[in-house]
């Protein structure tokens, strides 16, 4: 990990949400994201809203969240392959 003096808190928080969604491999509720990241609910919601706005996260019809590329099965399968 890079030195902490170059740390940008909002990016670390956004990436923690993306990491949780990637590790889950399935859509998650806001409550589960909050539990797994340790973020405040309002903070997590604002970050997710921005990730949605920029196309990194998508909301399902039932109000769960997933990485946007997870909606495309081919891309999802390709992103997680390990050499």
Can you walk me through this structure?
- The longest helix has 16 residues.
- It is built from four helices and two strands, in the order H-H-H-E-E-H.
- Helix 1 packs across helix 3.
- The two termini are 22 Å apart.
- Strands 1-2 form a two-stranded antiparallel ribbon.
- It has one domain: Winged helix-like DNA-binding domain superfamily/Winged helix DNA-binding domain (Arc Repressor Mutant, subunit A).
- Strand 1 and strand 2 form a beta hairpin.
- It is globular.
- With 83 residues, the chain is mainly alpha-helical.
Structure, briefly:
This protein has 83 residues and is mainly alpha-helical. It has helices at 9-24, 30-37, 41-53, 73-79; strands at 57-59, 65-67. A two-stranded antiparallel ribbon has the order 1-2.
Topology:
Blueprint: H1 9-24, H2 30-37, H3 41-53, E1 57-59, E2 65-67, H4 73-79
Antiparallel strand pairs: 1-2
Helix pairs in contact: 1-3
Continuous helix count: 4
Low-confidence stretches: 74-78
CATH architecture: Orthogonal Bundle
Q: Which term fits the overall shape?
A: globular
Q: What is the residue-averaged pLDDT? A: 86
Number of domains: 1
Task: Outline the biggest β-sheet.
Answer: 2 strands, antiparallel
Topology-level CATH name:
Arc Repressor Mutant, subunit A
CATH class: Mainly Alpha
Features:
mainly alpha, two-stranded antiparallel ribbon, 83 residues, 4 helices, 2 strands, Arc Repressor Mutant, subunit A
């Amino acid at each position: 990990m890079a030195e902490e003096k170059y740390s940008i808190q909002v990016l670390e928080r956004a990436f923690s949400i993306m990491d949780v969604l990637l590790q889950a491999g399935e859509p998650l509720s806001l409550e589960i994201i909050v539990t797994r990241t340790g973020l405040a609910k309002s903070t997590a919601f604002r970050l997710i809203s921005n990730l949605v706005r920029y196309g990194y996260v998508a909301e399902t019809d039932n109000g769960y969240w997933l990485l946007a590329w997870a909606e495309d099965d081919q891309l999802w399968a390709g992103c997680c392959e390990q050499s």
